[in-house]
Amino acid sequence: MYEVQQLIDGVWGRGPDDGALVVLDPADNAEVTRVPEATEAEVAAAVKASRVATAEWSSTPAAARGAALHRVADLLESSAEQLAEAQTAEMGRPIGLARGGVEAAVGTLRQYAELGPIHRGRALAGNPEAIDLMAVQPRGVVAALTPWNDPVAVSCGLLGAALVTGNTVIYKPSERSPVSGWLLARLFAAHLPAGVFSLLTGGARVGAALASAEVDVVAHVGSSATGRSIAAACAVSGAKALLENGGSDALIVDDGIDPVWAAEQAALGAFTNSGQLCVAVERIYVLRPVADAFVAALARQAEALRIGPGRDERTEIGPLVDRRQRLLVDSQVRAAVADGARVLTGGVVPDGPGAFYPPTVLVDCTDQMAVMREETFGPVAPVLVVDSFDEALSRAAQSPYGLCATVLTGSMSHAQQAWRELPVGTVKINNVFGGAPGGAAHPRRGSGQGFGYGPELLDELTVTKVVHIAAPGGPAGRW
């Protein structure tokens, strides 16, 4: 078992174990760790320590802050297997994907280590006898609340950007992946002054306390429901809410596309990480001429995937994070079937321990079904057949979310139409995953607000101050 500790003002400790959260391995129900819930006093102490540390850290040269991030990245690189194994143990992620998440995290830290020192304001063209400029400064104390589904990579994005711009950080990883958060925090703390980086553990109560505390930014990646609560708390406190929340990402399969290739893309988008990705394919709209061949190929793809514990190198589909999540996924599938959907493959909770759920393909779906309207966050691919590309775009746009969408098409005019009309932050053409590094987008609607990635994240975590410097007046009015 892992002995997770909290970090407040440079001191590690477990705190009281009353009401400790138990984390089970979703593959076999073995106990992974027991994590204490931070008390109100511990939250207050972490905020106070972070506030005190802001003066020294914000005045530390940006190059020195970047160098500290490079040292953390070095440690993370050398500890990659330990971090990968922790992800697999606590949330079931196949070990290969977990290693990929750590690798992405290293790259993200190095990116911000380099971008931070060149993040700058600009000079203004005013009176030539004066100096006018727009200067950037850190916002202050950042509360970073991160998810369980990709705990290392996502955390390193927020933590790296916040720290390199001179903010202090209070880090609360998800209660479903506290071990990954604790291991990561140890690496950061090894190269940062006391108070600059704090770690608090616990569930929703701790997150709510942090969102309502006297912090300057609450950066949250997670569910839309939690994001709305954070936005409401920030409206009262005046803190900035930086939110990357849920999605129900659409995939459109156009006429004239190779249905087998399209099915491979759909399976990759819907089943990777057991569908537990913010940018997973959650609903599919396929043009009628290719629909039969596409759904048959998609069902074959789903049935061919190897299901097993994440620690097995051969596993392609691991368990869901826990049985609570499996119940949510299965309830959506059952509701869809009750409303007329047909299961081509999967859709049955397996016997035995753990939280496994098979890759599932549903057809005859409608827009009113929860699997097409809400975020399922599981290995489910619901399909709706449409008669035209315009109809597919129209149906895809009818969502309370606006995170991502993917379009598979051989028509440049359809590609242009799609990226212009779809009300989402990211549109991907002919590739469910991928893209150049450094891309940043604004999520729409219930999917959040603010840039969560790329160089623009540095802008979100700093404030801009206009400065006008003129010579003094009077007879001696010269410098």
From TrEMBL:
GO molecular function list: oxidoreductase activity, acting on the aldehyde or oxo group of donors, NAD or NADP as acceptor
InterPro entries xref list: Ald_DH/histidinol_DH, Ald_DH_C, Ald_DH_N, Aldehyde_DH_dom
CDD domains on file: ALDH
Classification via SUPFAM superfamilies: ALDH-like
Pfam families, sorted: Aldedh
Keyword list, A-Z: Oxidoreductase
Domain Aldehyde dehydrogenase: 20-467
Descriptive protein name: Succinate-semialdehyde dehydrogenase/glutarate-semialdehyde dehydrogenase
